[in-house]
Amino acid sequence: MYAGSGAGALGAVILGSSFPEDAFGLLDGVVPAVFVPLLLAVLVQAAQGSRVVTAVVTAGMVQASGVAGVVGAVPLVLMIAAGSLSVSAFSDPYFWVVKRETGDPVEIVISRFTVPMMAASAAVAAAAWAIAAVFT
Length: 136
Description:
Elements: H1 2-16, H2 19-27, H3 36-48, H4 51-64, H5 67-70, H6 73-86, H7 93-102, H8 106-135
Helix pairs in contact: 1-4, 3-4, 3-6, 4-6, 6-8
């Protein structure tokens, strides 16, 4: 409930600002369109930490741009999911839950939680890129 409320409030602030246009302006022509949702999700994830909020906010940003019409639905969703997994460290609330519950030092949590999440992010992004390359 709270994550959804935060996603709505943060999403409204971001979509009401010039951030989506500025971000798309910086990425347009620099990276292939299929990677734009991934990069936006990475930025949002790094800024606020919650994967649910990242997915909701990034989807709103992508929908407001023209990228949703260029990238297929499956690669689009997978790239947003990959970006949501990408930066699971200090801004991620679950990182701190894992640290507290395991009692491990930060370095161990990074090696056992953050690094595998980054690997999963890369694998999902690679799968999305392959799907986009084959089916678009």
